[in-house]
Amino acid sequence: MASAPNSKYNTRSLENESFKRASRDGVNRDLGEAVPRLPGETRITDKEVIYICPFNGPIKGRVYITNYRLYLRSLEMDSAPILDVPLGVISRIEKMGGATSRGENSYGLDITCKDMRNLRFALKQEGHSRRDMFEILTRYAFPLAHSLPIFAFLNEERFNMDGWMVYNPVEEYRRQGLPNHHWRITFINKCYELCDTYPALLVVPFRATDEDLKRVATFRSRNRIPVLSWIHPENKTVIVRCSQPLVGMSGKRNKDDEKYLDVIRETNRQISKLTIYDARPNVNAVANKATGGGYESDDAYHNTELFFLDIHNIHVMRESLKKVKDIVYPNVEESHWLSSLESTHWLEHIKLVLTGAIQVADKVSSGKSSVLVHCSDGWDRTAQLTSLAMLMLDSFYRSIEGFEILVQKEWISFGHKFASRIGHGDKNHADADRSPIFLQFIDCVWQMSKQFPTAFEFNERFLITILDHLYSCRFGTFLYNCESARERQKVTERTVSLWSLINSNKDTFRNPFYTKEINRVLYPVASMRHLELWVNYYIRWNPRIKQQPNPVEQRYMELLALRDEYIKRLEELQLTNSAKLSDSSTSPSSPSQMLPHVQTHF
Amino acid sequence: MEFSELIRTRQAQAELLSGPEAPALRGTLCVTGHHLLLSPKPQATDLWLLLLRSVDSIEKRVAGDSGTITLRCKDLRVLQLRIEGVEATLDVARSIEALSSLESVITSYPFFYRPKGLRLGDAWHFHPLESYYKRVALETDAWRLSEVNEDFSLCPSYPRVVIVPRAVDDAALARSARFRQGGRFPVLSYHHARSGTALLRSSQPLIGPKKLRCAEDEELLGAVLAGARPGAQGFIVDTRSAQTAKQARMTGGGTESKAAYPGWKRLHRPLERGRHLQESFVRLVEACGDLEQSMDQWLSRLDSCRWLAHVQEALSTACLAAQGMEREGACVLVHGAEGMDSTLLVTSLAQLILDPLSRTMAGFQELVEREWIQAGHPFQLRCAHSAFSHARSKHEAPTFLLFLDCVWQLGRQFPLSLEFGEGLLLALFEHAYASPFGTFLCNSEKERCLCEVRTQTHSLWSGLNQSKEQRKLRNPLYVLNPSALWPSVEPQSLRLWQGLFLRQTRPPERSEEVWEKVWQIVTDEKTEDSRPVVSAPEPQP
How far is A356 from chain B (nearest CA, A)? Predict the structure, then answer.
């Protein structure tokens, strides 16, 4: 109920919420069973433990471990499940205390999660009781280290909608009006030979031959050549993405690359320059020369102007998020909250990413100039910038399916290294490749949805669900680093897509205030004054901070339920009516789509 | 009084800039007794009007043969006027300075404002105290309406009638009044029917260094407990720290001793007030308006303004009072020193938390009228200047604004539970500081009587309840929520009230536009909802 009291005085455990969310996900729950199970999920073990809840104190319970989740039920109250955590969110499992350590609840396991929380369990000291729990958790949380399959490959869920059908690159480019007489679709990367981290299908300038592309590829880091991401429907300026040029210390040049950029520039007659946005801070771009990289210099690329966007690298972002976790979990920093938040720099990074994307969008839309975006490899900051700019420019991407397509296109198909950044099923929690780049992108989207409450078809739950399944390993959507790897593993055949779940339950993820507007460019305010910490995500485990559970959406769901009830009543009325009249076609105002339903009752 | 003496010039050519995005408005500028007018050049259809009372500070600069006047308004807007001619600029500036700082109440604009569609007599029809008493009388007979203050002699800052325990007679009230600062003896603020407990407010008892006692005052509080649910305890929420309360004895004040008031337990919840609160407000507005400032330090600067900390303290003290009643079944008396600032903040917020009726449009207006205006919050002193004024007297304090901010936080956390929206809160803020209506004039009912406010001015409530304003003020999503609203008061759950404090640097999608869209969607949905029912064919008999 929207009216549910919620405050520091309220002791209701928040973890119940995550359980409720899971149950809405369409999990088939057998009431006779202790644990809800997905098709394909098998029970491994269960054990009596003490869950050391940082908010409500130690709770005696029984933990159930399946090949997909960890589930905790209290021993005292038989109705309340306390934890329902997909093993995929686990980043680290540590033993705390030893066989001889003293003190209550000092012996057990400490589990670090990727979703801003830690779980602590205390076990009995006698007989190494934690050993098997530790081993089983390690095995199923990190299947890659034990030559086990990731759960997504075992999941046998079925949905009404097939999420793998959502994104079809040819269709998406056709929606953008491509190919046209300046841009063509090439299949040169069909077997991922030109660039193994790019998708099979690319859009390139009409005047560049496949031979040109091959030569350009030699001069771009990891062969990630400039290709089209988005074209403006009216002024035909484009957003092009790539990796850094391999300039190196000696300042190498490549005629083909220079010519290629000029060809891109010439597809736009309105402005005589091509704008290049290098996402990195200037210093970092210079430093990259030492490792063979660099940026487009004035003397080599005449008709371009280059801007640095000052966005820091994956390591800085990882450390920043770590600091955020330090101030929100398990205890929230109370005094000088805002100053401590400032010291994490998280919002500042969000600001820089948004500011960069605004510049890209503005250049294309108002500046009427084509834009080339890159960072070092072009799969982290570049993906953030192009996808956010596209979200600002193109209202299609603000619908539920449009956003799925945007993620599928700019992130998944263009090789954002999800496997490395998230570490699916991998035990190396300290891997320097891990970084919350995608989370940062979703945070930026949330900031935009806050500033434009009617512009997005999806709600906050949609974004949180995406983030939950970014880690859960229940779906194949975010597995692997690039399209070629996904194809080798036959991910679309062997796993279920997250979009299947979402599109089969669309009402749950809809923003009730969405008003569709075509051709409206959204310019969010990226000033610190207008950015805020996404409390409902970062601090959601803390029951004290919890706001009302989205009362507006709750109300919306109630209204939808009310509508369904009315429709049902209408059906029943028609049923009695048509039975009485024994001629259903005479009922005057019956909506035609109801009729088949009515007939099945007979 | 002749305003014309103060008006140095009647007309000038000027250009108005009312914000970074708003287009400039050019035309003829006019200074009248109460207003600044700008009529755009060719036709004077689109008249721009500013109440001079709402100017908080004025800054003039001349260069060449023109000048610029920056007007910082009490509602936190900043306006720039570019005026042709140096003399004209200086004259306009001097006129505005003189006219905006007039202190006389009876020559203020509300006494001249005669809007179409409103008749003077209609304006003051509602008597929230009497109507509230009717409600209480249905719930319990432990309380009575007393006219002991009929001529304001007992307590100059109380209204003519107050609600007091039935068991206490007027003579005892009079003695209790003498024992309380400013005569503010304990009166009923809210009766919580579900728990059978009461919320009271007063000023501090005049214990003084000699630890004086007053039998009637003790009797009064005893009667409160006796009239409540059997076995009820009492809590005295003192809005000062224990130390400050103790120190107050040196100047004749103090706080209730445990021995003298059996059954009552004292709790100290220090709330910031007076000058410190005003300074916090000034710093916040300064920070919000400082566009030059490096944005990297915005959060720590916001932190150092302490405004949100005050919001938190106010809300959690109100929660404490409300919790004492609803969860512990106790009666609660709230007071600080004078009992007309932070006391009212706590009692009014506690009612909003507990009482669903106070969250309706009409109920909230009654609450403001009963718990702020009639309860004697000295609006004229507290709201004489806003955050920009350089002339600093020590009476200003944004207590009422703090209340509105707390209500806004409640509305943000419970978006369905308040019948009114941000629009009403903004309007109340603006009108409290400068208004064509008489509602917020003067410091007490007594003064309002002397000035004949009720007969000579229009009430804000009748102005607000004119239908064309409704959509801006009402919450389209409102559904009656019968339970108490327990807000989360952690700093992470509180936000800067952007719609007010950042009104000069607003986000691109204006909240009014969003509000309007939501209204449309909600009204559409209602018709859609009813459609199936309407179109359902009646079952044949």
Answer: 16
